[in-house]
Specification:
The protein folds into two domains: 2-147, Glucose Oxidase, domain 1, CATH 3.50.30.20; 166-380, 3-Layer(aba) Sandwich (Rossmann fold), CATH 3.40.50.880. The chain is 22% helix and 31% strand. It has helices spanning 37-42, 96-102, 113-123, 138-147, 203-211, 225-231, 249-258, 269-277, 365-380, and strands at residues 2-7, 12-17, 23-31, 50-53, 57-58, 77-79, 82-83, 106-109, 126-131, 166-169, 172-175, 192-198, 214-220, 235-238, 264-267, 282-298, 303-314, 324-330, 336-341, 346-349. The strands form three sheets. An eleven-stranded mixed β-sheet has the order 11-10-13-12-14-15-20-19-18-16-17, sandwiched between helices. It has a seven-stranded mixed beta barrel with strand order 1-2-8-6-4-3-9. A two-stranded parallel sheet has the order 5-7.
Length: 381
Amino acid sequence: MKAVLALEDGTIFPCKSFTGPGESGGELVFNTGMTGYQEVLTNPSYSGQMVVMTYPLIGSYGVNDEDVESDKIQVSSFIVKEYQNYPSNYRSTKSLSAYLQSENILGIHDLDTRGLVVHLRESGTMRGFISTYETDCPQNLVEKAKSFPLIEGRDLVKNLTTTKPYFWDNKGKTFLDNLDSGDKVWKSKGKNKICVFDFGVSFSVLNLLDLNDFEVLVVPAFTSSYEVKNLDPDGVFLSNGPGDPKPLDYAVETIKNILGFKPIFGICLGTGLAGLAVGGNTFKLKHGHRGPNNPVKKEDGSIESRAQNHGFAIETESIDQGKVKITHLNLNDDTIEGFKHKEFSLICVQHLPEASPGLENSSGFFSDLKKMINDFKTKEQ
């Protein structure tokens, strides 16, 4: 079915829909992964975005019920070079097009994705709009692209975070009505108790915490520092999530108020929020870091390929390096990929240690969590 993708700068890409008629808009971003499109589609960090895959053939292994990162598809539309409608994989339960259609998500192909990605790299991330209805009036679509609100300054978490706290284990979610019972809410004995702020947390993060023998309690993004202290967890985890950290002033204030209370760990959006809480500033990257293969230099000089998905970063100049040590740098643009506080038990990484999809060379982050919590407990005794 004929379709058109229009960018806010007036650039037009003729294409075809492989999911039927429809319209969709949002911020255009690209992912450099060769696999993992189902994880990309369902990752809350992509909430409301139009995702372009740089790998040219997508759909060849279909989709399944196990590889989701949230309860629904999060992207507003999906853009590929060539769609394969006949999957071949023993785990596949349906085709990608059927999966997208089941949640009314528009998918397009048969366009120059290489040219589109080069344009986004050179010009920067921008808004776009797709339509199968107004294919003869592309200028109208350009205007619709311009009408979409910018990502900067918007709180994308408030409508994404859980409304009720819940425990997570390999059986899924067990919801609680509230946190009024404080530290009596915890069930297991012997496990480290971790409070996970849901800014758009991925299932893989929760699964790895569970596999590393944590009792995992997920709380809404608006949870106060009083409630956290009343819960008395062994550690606090600031999750991944979409968009600009600056509008989440409620979360930044909570982090400030619990610094030093218990060990705090942040990833992705959580790292940006922690950076603001320790006095730093954040800014929007030209085209973001999204994919499983971003080179990161660690403080010991070693280099690893890390999975990333973020469009904002911490300004290096804004960090007080007398109090904060930068531990990881992105080798593509020298932006901060990780830091730790010199006084408080706080470590953060901008990348995704669960690496879903991606290499597992950063999975040691979860072992670091356990060690930091155990060391903190020893000091408390």
